[in-house]
Structure formats: structure tokens, C-alpha cells
Design a protein that fits this description.
- The complex is a heterodimer.
- Helix content of chain A is about 35%, strand content about 20%.
- Chain A is built from 20 helices and 25 strands.
- Chain A has a six-stranded mixed sheet, with no helix packed on it. Chain A has a five-stranded antiparallel sheet with strand order 14-13-25-24-23, sandwiched between helices.
- The longest helix of chain A is centred in the N-terminal third of the chain and has 34 residues.
- By secondary structure, chain B is mainly α.
- Chain B has 17 helices and three strands.
- The mean pLDDT of chain B is about 85.
- The chains are: A alpha+beta, B mainly alpha.
Amino acid sequence: MSQTEDPSNRGIRIRLIILGGIILGVFLGFTLYLFNLQVVENLIWEGRAEAVSRRSEPLLAQRGMIWDRNADNPLAINLDSYAIRIIPAEIPPSNPDEVSRRLASVLGMDASEIRVKIPGNWHNSWKPVEVADGVPYKTVVSIAESVERYPGVEWTGKPYRWYNNVGSISHVLGYVGNITVEELQILYNRGYANTASLGKSGIEKAFDGILRGKDGVLYRTVDVKGRHQGDDVEIIPPENGLDVVLTIDRHIQELAEKALGPRKGALVVLKPSTGEILAMVSYPSFDPNRFNQPGTGNFNTLSLNPDFPFLNRAVQSSYAPASTFKIIMSAALLGEQAVDPEMTVDCRGVMTLGNRQFWCWKHSGHGPVNLKKALEQSCNIYFGTVGVEYLGIDAISKYAKSFGLGSLTGIELDGEVEGIVPTKSWKEELYHTPWTPGDTLNSCIGQGFLAVTPIQMANAVAAIVNGGIIYKPRLLKEVRRPGMNVVVEKTEPEVLRVIDLLEPEDYDFIREAMRGVITEGTGEWAVYTKSVEVAGKTGTGEIGFDDRWHDWFVAFGPYKTDNPDEQVVVVTMIEASDSYDWWAPKATDIVFEGIFGHKTYEEVIEEWRRRRVWWSWDDKDLPKPGEPYIPEPDEVDE
Amino acid sequence: MKRNDSPTTFLRLDIVLILCVLGLIALGIAFIYSSGMTSEGIQVSEEWIRQIIWSAGGLGLMTAFAFIDYGRWKNWSIAIYLGTLALLVLVLVIGKYIRGAKAWLGFGRIGIQPSEFAKLSLILLLAWWFDERGRGQDTLQIWLVAAGITALPILLILIQPDLGTAFVFIPILMAMAFAAGIDWRILLFPIAVGTLVVVGVLGYAWSEYIAVTPAGFFLLFTEKSLVRISIPSLFGLCLLAGGGWLLFKKKIYLALLYIFGTASVSYIGIAGATRLLKGYQMMRLVIFLDPQIDPRGAGWHIIQSVTAVGSGGVLGKGFLQGTQSHYRYLPEQSTDFIFSILAEETGFLGSLIVFGLFSIIIFRSLYIAYTAQDRFGTYIAVGIAAMIGFHVIQNIGMAIGVMPITGIPLFFLSYGGSSLWMALMSVGILLSIHYRRYRNR
């Protein structure tokens, strides 16, 4: 039995030792590795094990409400509503489509809409899938009553944003929507979850950080398939969003909306002494409450509407200012002391510049006009002559820019456009052609390259009213804590720009001339309000048609006051449309009468009818009172 | 000594080996029970009961195999081998797809995996081959036949496809050939080729999927025009070296031939692997290199398993207290990842016990190989030791993240009848070899 003496046995012994050594060597290596993993690095892995088995669910914070400046009736609220969810794994495998079909019929949806949301591996997917939100309590009750017919269906409270006031105010308020993947990428570090709703436009977007509050978190332990495990629930309560009080007065907003009527355009009511916006109307508008319903009000349908109902024409669209620009021209002439205001130009209805004939709007001519009369009568020949001969484009654009044209006003709404104030270098860079005197002439009467937004014009008029100070236009009056109405934050007027090119008398002069527009000028036959002394300026923009024009009216009132706080600026801009009815001054007139006569739109029209202020009260000529653009109503199942 | 000497029969069995195996089986049942437990303490799986039944049957088989003279397998080894080959073919025809591989033969509710039993039948045939023909013959020829014997089941299992199981046959062959005295230079060749191919394919996976800029070096294996140049030139070098040997009979040429041959075969292996490996197989290699590349998808298993093991600590979270396992973060906890749940709940101490028991089993196997009364017994014991050793290394290595994921079980611990029965039959044969170690001496 002495195997070691056998040489082949000796070889085998060595080989077995080597084999055993290799295997045990690896075992030893693994043991050391395990020692490192389980003993040395234990804390790291323990932490990871904790992290991975805890899953968090957001507890939605109540979005703050939006109020108008009276703060008595909210503009945007949250409705108690429900989201319907399906746990795919609980769908009976025998008849998977049955649940979607039943759910679709009770929710008024299409069954395929539900089915596409259920993942392909629904057999073992325990993660709830949201198939509908904004579901009213009644519907949930009817599902709950026969819950056995809806296996796998559950519901959770999910507040639904509801807008009490829709139409033109919707441009200001904006709307909320579910966060998109792209938005989440950007906002990820600011605490937005992938289930978050966020403001997509308007106030909802601008003050999303204030309104949204802070979602709470509900932690619970779940398994790899998302099933809840155990009862150790930990809750970080949500912080509800703060309420936002706007500078908008919803009565003035309604008045302005109706005054503008069904005309594409914008109307802005601004308090020049503070920059507060009392009303901002843009037509056409939309109704965010109907975005998810089929029909003309559906979001996708509206997006494709050629009238761009989502465009807030007060800030997001720029137009040639036309004759309203003569206010800036007057300021330039006075500020540069280019001409004596009493110097007259003889308007014969036409002037020649180079080989081009240039007509006054009044082809018979105004005769000799000085500055004041030229502004009152909106004489093109006067401003064309003095502009080209005494000012030049450099001075004109300097004054236009100093009044804030061509630059953002900084209003809280996004998508604001700058407009254009042309200069020589601007044209050369863009068109590669030199500036011509004809271009200057066009600029003198607010045509050509000039483009301004209604809010910029409102600022320019405010500068005239304030004697050179423009306050930043704003929509936020204050931020309040909901429930207790504690004011958390109050916005104060902020000076946007100070125009130091003119003397106080110059502003007096322009104000007087603008008053003259109403009393003896172009506005004489359009403004009838007796409640307030209005001063303003008309504008009729050439857009290449013979029978339709962009129609501007910029005004302020009262013309003279000891209390600047009561003054308002109203700017109305109506896009050229088929039925030109020179409506901008009339709309402005209605707004002034409504505000200072404390009347509703209907009451103003009633009085106008009684006073027979307009040329004719034939039904044909009578402007239709405006209805806010509300898409065709659809029957909503209750 | 006489056989059937009843008072000593019991003592002549390898008690230590049996105790280790029983210990592992008991641990296995305990943690299969644990794996079926939800966090609410509800047992949702009957696997532990079935494993007890499987164990009882398996222990019966082990006893039977222990008392069957292992020498009898010698005459049956070819028939058993051919039988398992037939089963491997059959499984390709009528087998059931489970987890993407056609590896199971179903009989009613019970399924068996022929590839498991193919391991044991290969060990028997190789032992017979090395014992019968192993003496006084040219070792290269013996080696080539042995390699051919091993290649057939590997190919059939690769078709299933079950890369992990197929790979187990290679270390079995290498260990038995080594024990049988095959020249180390012959064995070094496949080891060198294998190492080069593995390193090359891993490098390729790293370059393609993880590295920021792929290494241009790997174009050598993937770019067709380059492959067309490389293969003939490598073969040319081999021919030159071979010619030199024939002409000048100088050893330097043989050495060169060896090196060039290794390079050529490795090259073909890497180039072939980059083309043939399926997307998910490539992904397993990639996530082995860097699990974080796809933490929710393919890397999930590795990350969860390592997290479970690492969070176990020194003494573990306690039986039935593992969070990773009871919250079902661990995949396939009762089979492939049984070690993870064990390590989570019993900690480093439990891991040490498992390694200790396996080490003793390996030691005993090799000791039995050494004391076996004939070479056939020696080779069988070596093959079994290699098989068990490699399974442990691969399975636990996977659970702790140092080996790529392959679905091979941890013997005695993992749930599953086929692997348990095969392992217990192997132990039975070991016991038989041990029992008869003094016979005819």
C-alpha cells in the first residue's frame, strides 16, 4: 500500500495537488473578495439596498389659484377630480379587452385610446397606468358602484385645473399641461417629477414656481414589480402653491373684450402711473377647459387654426404703428428743437420725393398746418416734410427707441416680440441696400419697416402721460397664501425707462395736441364719452389693400388730472379685416365710458343707442357687439 | 479486507463528504424556502417542498450509486454517452423553450435537463478513455479523441443555445486530461487559445459598447478586407515554422509553430465570436464589464445580486430578513442566484461556511481520486471535482459580479431536480470509489 513509491502515482499526486490548488486558490480569492464586499464595503451596499427597495410617489400639491385685482372671485381654480388608473397585471387574462371597453364607455372615450396605454407585458406589470384624468366624481361613483366589472381599475384624486373665466383672459392666464419629456430634461433639477403638471403659457407658466407649490412624497417599500410591500409608509406632506393676484380687473377685461368684439386684434388697458395692466385682450382666443374635448376647441384643432388663436396679439405680434407714430415724431421734433412748433407746412394733399408721389390721407390737403394741427389732423405731408428735411432717420429711431419701441417691455408673459425700429445700418445688414429718403418718409408716418406691439404703444403713451417715465408693464399684483389671504409678496412699480430728451412743456404740448385729436381732429367723430376727457391718436395702417387697413387707436384719460392714479392708457389695435369699420377708436371710446362711467359694455351700448352717437343705427352699419372667441360648444356628458 | 463486512460498511463510507453534502442540501432547502417568502411573511412558492422531495429521491440515488460498483460503469460508459447524446438531439426536436433555450424535456409536470446528465456521462466516458487507452500511446492522439468526445455534447448544447452549460464541459476535460498525464504543452494550447479568445472578445465588447472611442485594433477582427489578409498571413507563418521544423529539426521552429498556431486559432476564434455571438450574449459580456451601462435592464441582475451580497455584512440580515430577496429585487433567487439570498441573510459567515463545505467536498474528491484503487476511479473523481469546482466558481462568481452571467446552478443549493440528482449521483459514484479503495490491493 505504499503508493508513493509508484512513479506514476507520484505524478498523479502532484497533478491532483495542482488541480486542488487551482480550485482552492480561486475559492480563497473569492472569499477575500467577499470579505471586502460584505465586511469592508458593507455600509455602501446596505445604503444601496435601502435606496432600491424604497419607492417614492409624489403627493400632488394644490396649485395656487389665480385672482383678478379685486380678489373676490378666482379666475383659475382646482376642481376635485379623479384620475382613472389601471393595474395591468390585474386585468383578467381571459378577456383583456373587456375592461378597456367598459371603461371607455363609462368615460366617453375610445377603447383603443385606453388600450394603447396598457403595456405589452401587462401580464406582470404592476405599475399603475393612468388612462384618464379630469374624471368627475359622478363617473368615479358609477365605476365604484359596480367595481367588480372593472378588475384592475383604480382611481386617485388628481386636482384638475379649471378656468372660471375664459376667452381673452386665457391669453393672460395661459394653461397647464402634463410635463413633456423635453421639459423634464430641462427642469429636472428644479424638483419637477415626471408626473408633474406645469404651466405651458401665460401667467401659469410665468409664475409656475409660485403657483405649483411643492409636491410631497410618499415613500413605501415596493418589490421589483412595483407591488407594495409592508405598511411602513412615510409621508412628506405637500406644500400647496401660493395664490397669484393679477393687476387685471376682470370687469374691465370683460368690457374690453366685448368692446373689441369679434375682430382680430388686441386691446390693452394700462395704468400709466404704475405699469399695472388692467386688461389685456387678444382675439381670437381659446378655452383651456375644452382642450381635451373633441370639436373646434380641441387643443390640436386650435393649433392648426390659421387665425393663430394661441397668439397673444398684445405682446407677441408687431404691426406698423401707422399714424400713432406721429406722437413719437412730435416728441422728436420738440426734443431736437428741429422746427418751431408754430412753423407751418402747406399741405396740398401730395408731395414729391425724388420721382415718387406721396399723398396725404386727405387728398384735398390740409392747407397750412403747424405741429399741433398736423398731429390733430394726422397730416402726412407735414410729418413727411419735417421728418425728411429736419430730422432724418437717425433722430427718428433714437426717439423711437427711447420710448421703448424695438425693445422688450419685460412683461411677465413669455414670447414677447421686440418689433422693429429701423436704422440705416439695420437696413444695410438685412437687405444689403442703402437707406433712402423714401425709407425715412415711410418711417415718419409709421409705415415701412417700423413694427411695434400694442403693449409698446401703451408704454409710449404712458411716457407722454407721465412726462417721460415708463413703468414696467406688469400683471402680478401680489402673491397670497391661500386660505388666510395673507399677502406674501407685493410687486411695486418699477421704472422701465426714463426719457430725458424732452422738457416737461414738450409733454404738455403733445398731450394738448392729443386732446385736440379728440376735440377737433381725426378722432372727433369716433369718441363720444362724456365721463372722461380723452386724449389720443388714431392710426390707419397701409397693408397693401385699398379697402382695409390696420386700425390703431392709442389714448389716455382723463386728459388733465390732479390724481395720476386714476389715469388709464388704452391701446386698441385691430388687424385689417374684411369689414373695415374704423372700430379701434370706437372700442377705445366704449372702454373709457365703461371705466369712468362705471358701466358694462351693454350699458354703454344702450346709452350710445339712446344718444345716437354714431352715424347710423341701421342694422347694417351697427357693429356687432363682440362675443369672446369661444369655440363651438359641445355637449358635455354629465 | 472483505466486502460486505457489515459492522464496518458504514464506517467505510466517506462520512465527511456525506455530511458536507447533507449540510449544503439543508442550507439549500432553507434558502429556497426563504426565496419563496414575500415581505409580508407569506410563502408563495412550493419550491422548497419540491426540493425536499427531489432531495429525498436524490439521496436515494446517491445511496444506490454508492453501492453499485463504479467499475460497472466502465462497460456502460459508451452506451450512456451515446444515450445522452441522443437525448440532447431529442431535446432539440421536442424540447420546451424555457428562458430562451430549448433545454428541457418535459414529462407531464416534471422537466429534466439532458445537458445536466451529459456532464456525468462525459466524465464516465473520458475516464474510460483515459484509463483504457491512456497508457503508452501518443498523448496528442489521446487528447484529440478526448477533445472530440467533449466537443459533441458542447456543440449540441450550443445549438439549444446554452452557452453557460456548454462551457462547463471544457474545464472537466482539461482537469481530467491533466490528471491523465497529457503533456502540459498540449493542454497549454487550448488554455492559451481560450484565454486569448476570452480576452479578445471582452476587449471587443468593451471597445464597441463601453469605450468612448472604439479601439481601432478591433477592426482587425471585424473588417472583412483585413480578415482576408490576416488569416492567410497567419497560416503562412504557421507553414513557414512547420517547414522549418521539418527541414532543420530545430526546436526553435516548433516553438514558433506553437506560437503562430495559437495566434491563428485565437484570431479565428475572436473573429468568429464577434460575428456569431447574439445580441443578448454580447450584452451579457458588456454588462459584466460595466453593469451600470444598463442598470434597469440587462445590468439589473448583477447590480441587484451584488447589492444583496454586499448588504449582508458580517453576520447577515438574519434568516428570512433579507430585503433584496423578499422585496423580489433578486431575479431567479431559488436557482441561479441562491447564493445571493444566502449571503444576504447569513452574511460573510454564511458565505464562509458555504465555501468551507465546498472546499471539503473538493478536497475529499481529490483525496478519493488519489486513493482510488484504479485509474478509472481516479479520473472519475477528478472529473467530478472539476465539475463541482467550476460550477461553484462560475455561479458564485456571477453572484458577486466577477463572472459573466450564465444560467448554471450552484450544486446542492440551487432549486432544481436535474442538477441536484446529477450532483448526488456524482457523489454516489465518489462514495463508491471511496468504498472500494482497498479492493484487490
